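Show me any protein, fold above all:
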Amino acid sequence: MSVAGRLATDEVVPPSESSDRLPGPDVVRAVALIGVVVMNYHGYLMFRGAGIGVGDSTLDRFFDPFEGPLSTRFASTFVLTAGVGITLLTRRVVADRAEGVAGAARAVTEMRWRLVRRGLALYVLGQLLDVIWPGTIIVYYGAMFAISSLLFTLATRWIITTGLVAALAGWWISLWSFWRVEDGASVAWLRSPASDSIRRYVFDLAVNGTHPLLPWLAFLCAGIVLGRVLEVPDWRLWCSGIGLVLFGAATIVSSMAETAFTDLALSRHPFDRGLVYVASALGTSLIAFAGISWIADRATGPAAAVVEVLREAGQMTLTLYIAHILIFNLVVDWIGWVEPGGLGTALTFAFGFWLIAMVLGAMWHRRYGRGPAERIYRALGG
């Protein structure tokens, strides 16, 4: 596996907006953050420690940030939630346009440009963070937000079609590359473009990077569609049911692989970009979104207080994501308080950061509202 592939352990989602903000998406982000930090810290601590690898125990294999069952699952959930956020942000202007409200067309155009500006802001931020945190997903988020400026007014069937095409295209490119190599041809022009080539930025963003648009745009499209049905009765039942079908079918199909080609074609490995992987990851993301949001909406007593902390911290995920990068570099690379180690070190480090970040994030939100990164993000992106 390439170094770029192994760096695909980080994920973040910018906060969504709505005139009547739903607690579910924010709580999903906050809960998923612990997975983000665990996967990132475990993977990057192994990078920092020469010779440190994944252990042989069941627990080690479960938390393997590169090939384990949790690898990139948190990322797909964040991308799905980002799609939900886009729908919540844009639903008013879309409804006004459908009803023929005066000025609605202009409002839609302004919303398109807002999404483009936000996408550009995230893309530039991602390129800067990539210097100290190679493989950051924020670059891809920027591209997805820019693309969403063209998607949010489309009929649901066309958004589903777009997501399916993205998944199929990523799968086909992977298979085509396999066939070309089998025939003795080189695909280096696509897979390994020169570092100083403009082509590298295009191909890495679309095909080769840690969370390329093909197939990752499928998760965003699924989230946009999901955001449109949040007011439908029993939507969680349908959401979790579809998720279980996708995950179950992907698990069964992947077990049928018997050759080198079918190992790739039916792979659930995230870096094979396969259709089976997309189905499996989307299934778990749908189940997670439905389950966590259900708990968030129904929590009472002490549980409601915990949910409130998570909801407030979940509105600051961009700040907390950047913070987890800076803290890692500070205590591992600069001060040396945390030595590169295995799973135990990563879990202790990650849980410690998560607990402190949740509390401080909620406290900041109650006192100042938006987080510092969110304020800059909104100032640049509108």
Residues 1-19 have pLDDT under 50 and may be disordered.
